[in-house]
Hints:
Layout: H1 2-7, H2 12-26, H3 30-64, E1 68-73, E2 76-81, E3 90-94, E4 102-114, H4 116-119, E5 125-126, E6 145-146, E7 151-163, H5 169-177, H6 186-216, H7 220-234, H8 239-256, E8 259-261, H9 265-269, E9 275-279, E10 290-295, E11 299-300, H10 308-316, H11 329-340, H12 345-351, E12 354-361, E13 366-372, E14 378-384, H13 386-389, E15 393-398, E16 401-403, H14 407-418, E17 423-432, E18 446-455, H15 462-471, E19 475-479, H16 484-494, E20 503-505, H17 506-511, H18 514-520, E21 526-528, H19 532-544, E22 549-553, H20 559-564, E23 567-571, H21 577-582, E24 585-587, H22 592-632, H23 641-658, H24 685-709, H25 715-733, H26 741-744, H27 750-768, H28 770-776, H29 783-791, H30 793-808, H31 825-847
Parallel strand pairs: 9-19, 9-22, 15-18, 19-21, 20-21, 22-23, 23-24
Antiparallel strand pairs: 1-2, 1-3, 3-7, 4-5, 4-6, 4-7, 8-24, 10-11, 10-18, 12-13, 13-14, 14-17, 15-16, 17-18
Amino acid sequence: LVRMLLDQFLDFMILVLIVAAGISFWLGEREDALAISAILFLNALIGTFQEYRAEKAVAALRRLARPSCKGVRGGEVKSLRARELVPGDVVVLEAGDVVPADIRLLEGAGLQVDEAPLTGESVAVAKDPAASVPEDAPLAERRNLVYRGTSVTIGRAKGVVVTTGMATEMGHIAALLGRTQAERTPLQKRLARFSGRLAAGVIGICALVFVFGWWRGEPLLLMFMTSVSLAVAAVPEALPVVVTIALALGARAMVRCHALIRRLPAVETLGSVTYICTDKTGTLTENRMRADAVWIGNWHKGFPREAELFGRAGALNNDVKKGCKEGDPTEVALCRLALEAGLERAELESTLPRIRELPFDTRRKRMATAHQTPDGDCLIFVKGAPESVLPLCRGRWEDDKIISLQPERIEQAIEAKATEGYRLLAFAFRRVKEAPPQDEDLEEELVFLGLVALRDPLRPEVSEAIDQCRSAGIKVVMITGDHPATALAYARQLGFTASEQSLIDGPALTALDDEDFRSGVGNLRVYARVDPAQKLRIVEALQARGEFVAMTGDGVNDAPALKKADIGVAMGQIGTEVAREAADMVLLDDNFATIVAAVHEGRRIFDNIRKFIKYTLTSNSGEIWTLLLAPLVGLPLPLLPLQILWVNLVTDGLPGLALTFEPQEKGVMARPPRRTDESIFAHGLGYHMIWVGLLIGLVCLLALYWAYSEDVGAWRSLVFTLLVFCQLAHALVIRSERESLWRQGLFSNLPLLGAVAVGILLQLAVVYLPFLNDIFKTRPLPAGLLGICFVLPLVIVAAVETEKWLVRRNLIYQPSAPQEKRSIRPLILAIGRWGVFLTACFYSASVK
């Protein structure tokens, strides 16, 4: 906190002002010097508070996004934070997990680990708990150890933690790298560059203010202090910090919508999404599979008595835990179907223990398990996608004997159920004297057992979410491993496609070359029988067309597509740790509607950042116009240095921050996605900043001209108060770019209303409290002049409301076509010409 506070005083202009205050103190202007120092300290406190809050908000997000793992505590496997592990803990690893520590393996089944982050080796390394490894073996050859930061690609294992944190192999590398600065978001970088350019422009303008004031006869020291104070007030140093606060608080608000933002840039870019490529199972559906029917020559409601071997396959080729309660939803449904037929998994495992297994992977699309029979033989069960299992079969099991396979009949059964929206799984078996020596040999010379038809009901809220996407200009694409007929049936239920021409399956996608795929990808809405590796190709094809893509995924092989996508979205419940590490956003409920809610929230946050920028820069513009034009038209200096700093303190801090709490505007999801190359100053923000700032300056100059020419003694207090009130009125009226203040309601943003009220009270205190009169060189305003200060800001309100009326009727600020590059130069030249004309008018009037 002390370092943060001291950093607030390291800005060059602040240092110049401190030196100037010191000179004033030495020359005898002690009250001014002390008051300026006090305001600079208050500004520093506010800046420190903002920066501290931003750091705390980002730190809270980091805590939410910390990796987790499965560890054994109290004899049970529990989900633990990776940072909670200590040497000696037992950890369970499965395909898709990121290894949370350096671990010595105790047992494993088909375990392969991607060690590329540590060794650079691109091929997954097979691990063996029983391997004997010399103590001096190179890291890449230690087959009985897995290391923190690597990821499990295939298989599962159990091991004991050897080292954690900075003591791990990955920790040693991290220690060599040292500490690095946190990366700023693209928006923060753009605003920082803009602030730098603005600072250069403001210094030039302040130099003009200094020259014009000195030319008019103002004291040299006074004009120097005024110029520096104006520069300090006009440069929005807090912009990047406030953007961090808005993004971080918005990201924390998204957690309440069940969306965890892992990278802050995702918040600002959500509003640009044009395509959402989503998985079906668990995202569009409830992930609550129900096995409705079994095919063994004909469709049956459950496993019939003559299909006991088939029922055993469903129960044993399965990794469910705690009976039939925990595990993959498909496997839970199969286990329950076997239970309904009187086949208890625990009893079957006691007589047919598993001795070998070949875990499921997305390339093979199947899983094999080998079981020891009481007579010493080996019984092998295989489960997987029908097109993956059928080619491996040499016959079909029926009435306890092997008959001809009849693949055409099986295909007809598959097609009939797939068109009804069912997912089909095929089962096969093989009986041998002993288990084959190689795992790959488990899946040879199989006998087909039958099919199971499963259904996963759609989530009730998904249809409405897809309708919102349609109105928001976002296209939804479904990517699934299901049969094409099943995929099309679900898509038609959801209402976002009804044409077979909008569907493509994995083999057809493989056959297309990249150019043909890119030309047709815009017409495709459903991808069936697609493997995760093809997701990357879909993302690249859409991005080549200029689309902004959000892609969902849950597996290890989804990680490249999630990283490549503009917004990678991982599943929080069924997703692997590898997928979550690669993603920008994690769905804590695995629900498609949550993605849409996150886009909704992202648009609101970006809108509020724009409102803060619009308010701050317009306020600063008003101050600059007031101080720049006054000497040109022969009027005295409107504000003293201390008053300039006070205006900045009262109007910039609380009201600007309160704008980030603005509720969403109506119709936020009824407008097209924001273009990725769109400037933060698009849709009239740059124009507004200049012309409303000029209007504020003209209102203040008119009041100054009248009060000074009428010899009103409190003319400077009048301009001082009027400038503050104009800026506070502007904060109230820019809460929407289209909707009027009266339709929004004054009380719909209570923090902003409170900030405006506090600003008014503080300004009145400066004007009416005697001891503050001496410090700020103010005089109490008579009731008539105070009334002017409350009435004239209504000109700003009326002008901005007129602007919004014109925007609602699409008469101004029309969005440009994507290929157009509109320049703000014509506007600046036009305003410059008007400024010269008005200055000449004022000057001639003052001379007369």
